[in-house]
Amino acid sequence: MAVKRLTKNERERVGQVLSLLDEHYTMEYKCYLNHETPWQLLIATILSAQCTDARVNLVTEDLFKKYRTLEDFAAADLKELEQDIHSTGFYHNKAKNIIECTKTLVKEYGGVVPKDIEALTKLAGVGRKTANVIRGNVYHEPSIVVDTHVKRISGKLGFTKEEDPVKIEFDLMKVLPKDHWILYNLQIIAHGRSICTARSPKCRDCFLFNLCRWEGKNDE
Fold first, then answer.
1. From CA 157, how far away is CA 42, in angstroms rounded?
2. What positions carry a catalytic annotation?
3. pLDDT per residue as tens digits for the range 66-116
4. For residue 118, how many C-alpha atoms fall within 13 Å in the half-sphere facing its CB?
5. For the chain, which residues make up each domain, given as ranges?
6. In the CATH hierarchy, which top-level class contains the domain 8-29+144-219?
7. Is 14 helix (H, G, I), strand (E, B) or coil?
8. How far apart are CA 137 and CA 182, in angstroms?
9. What percent of the chain has pLDDT over 70?
10. What is d(CA 185, CA 113) in angstroms, rounded to the nearest whole number?
11. Class level of CATH domain 38-137
């Protein structure tokens, strides 16, 4: 769906989808990555690329005890940090980006994670997904986070035909009311983990079955 302006029927269908998501999942803002500070969330989100939140939380439990401040990360030995985060995958790039990112935060931002998406995406290892996690969870700015669940399920719902995460984000900004931008990600993560799983979606058990546009749903 190349969305520019929704028809009345499409607006109603989107509203029905969101109402059902609200009914079945949380209406509270929550973050699946454990953190106590904005910079900890930033590092955890960098680590979450191509890695599960559960694995990241296991790693950061010890990581944030070893490196207690931004300055600790900025001064970290690259090889040592690589070993500390090895199990999250892509650890060479992640370690390098974390050190560069934290150095920039210390030197240019006084240790404060910026709110502006342009400033965030200039940090090493920070794309729009990571930036929107920070904007939504730290600053409560309406933001759409396009992770694997959002990409997969938004396509099945017919909210987008795009494959590129940035294009999907902008499609969803046109489809979804702003008050659901953050909630949608949280609810779709829950839906993607429990019902609309990547490998074996439970279509017949899905409360969105009649609203779903996925052609393969009748084969499940």
1. 30
2. 129, 147
3. 999 999 999 999 999 999 999 999 999 999 999 999 999 999 999 999 999
4. 0
5. 8-29+144-219, 38-137
6. mainly alpha
7. helix
8. 8
9. 97
10. 22
11. mainly alpha
